[in-house]
């Protein structure tokens, strides 16, 4: 346990707590802040005044309530003035967004990503999108950070992409490459796509208020963002959550990681297309075509989807026994598979998970949809501001 | 993020931090405490005085250093005055200990546990051991709590043992049963044996200073205590870490949990004895006999040990990919298996774990040995004192 903080640390912590509250919950009255933060009215007033001076929040009258009496002033995040850039590097596309304090996507760009594109090649494309968006930024607005979501294993200390089996990346320094293109000295925070999507869903999505969450994200491969005891599980180097490389079949199908029988060889893109007899196809559209065909009664597609669903339930049962989560979220292609094969998944889960671990688990799809990666990347960028609001801006 | 604490909360937090430091590290000079806790000398002096008044620590001259100058006073935990009772309910035995602040086992009792013994039957045996030990307690000594380690899934909120497949327990209220026997009103904290052993090794054992740890504990079954980001992973209900019920073989051997192909059916007691052709044997002695036979060149025993070692490596590789730990500890029968089949384990780990997840993993045996469960149970009991030292005693 750390010793208690100094007076100055307490003030910064309180400022961060207040700013985080309106960042996550939006406009909040002073009265509600008093209750939510457990601080008295004069402290809330002083903290708000500091944040107003720093241009991070504004105060104003609430919307008409129709009730009598003097209404409590409402504190709002300066959503158009304070923003972050968020990038998402996916198997088939690159995305860039400008996200305001409070989590709204203010502007966005998207482009196809040819498979095989390196970090050095991706950086100018992303930087170009940011420069385009920059032209529409109102005068006086302040960028407080940059976050990047990547399909791959990201080293926590410096954001190096150690391995992206699905992107072909090995030791790609996307942060520095992007910083050089953008002409930025400020740190660029890089995270694994499943981790940042879990972060976003936990902060302001379907898992808000849940302390123990497994967010499964699938594209070609499968990874998980884990929330344990209310905090992101990163592991020692930042590589935790590589559940797609949990072996489920001894001497099974070869995986792009070099081993055999990884879970993602059965539930990822390749496995599903292989079992549906479409070995030459690839990409999300090809996957969606299999789900469509299964829906329309194509026997082989249907069998492939059921088999993949059974394997999805098999692995989720293992994760339920290991993490005892209250929620499992199915994102990316795992969402499509979950919706197409819910019966197989539940049946396997009931057969394989321990009853005590299973009794409070809810299975859910993301609330933020595909935006989770962008919003999560922006959350990474906002973290520094929220930790110490007066030190940034 | 929570808002900052009040002055009183800060003082309690500082008292807890100081007491925890000497509890974990033993006698510490005021000068070292100043550095370790980042507090100034007068604050350390005032906090120490409070803890001395409460009878929790003592101050005195250090041992002779041979160096000139006035030595800094040394703060010591009151290890013989402040103690907790710790119990460990295992497959084959019951243990009870009196553990002093600072973590030393002051007294202990052990008895065989007939398999099948219920909580109601175990409670008087454990209480009897405590009453025996109580007679040797010096006048003025204070018991600050009671902790219990159990082979089984323990509900976090109330310590109910939901399921102990290896003890046959279902919904056994060991805490209340023991409290009634002991005539105690004070809360009795119950935890899973792997969780509390991990806690002990993390606090004062081989994993001290490690933030990401997997502690595997084996007896008939196999469970894990997980430390993630420096904190114990409990899961939503307290059932996290049930890695023994990770399925590794589809439609594999039947498990006592009702499913098939659980990891523990391959690496636990039953699997090893089955493969060694000793289906009628059971218990740790029978297991040790297999390891002995393998050492002496018995081909069947050797093959069984190698096979179990390979499966142990298979599952550990999955956990390494999922948790990215810096240390994996092998406790209970997993220690014996690890020592007997280290080559198979490392080979499988190298083949199956992702290189980035593997690069900083150290494989270790427990430093606290079999005492980890008792010391960890005592740590559970000390938690309340360390969280708020002046509120207990």
From TrEMBL, chains A, B:
Entry superkingdom: Bacteria
Pfam families: ROK
Family designation: Belongs to the ROK (NagC/XylR) family.
Protein name: ROK family protein
Protein's organism: Micromonospora globbae
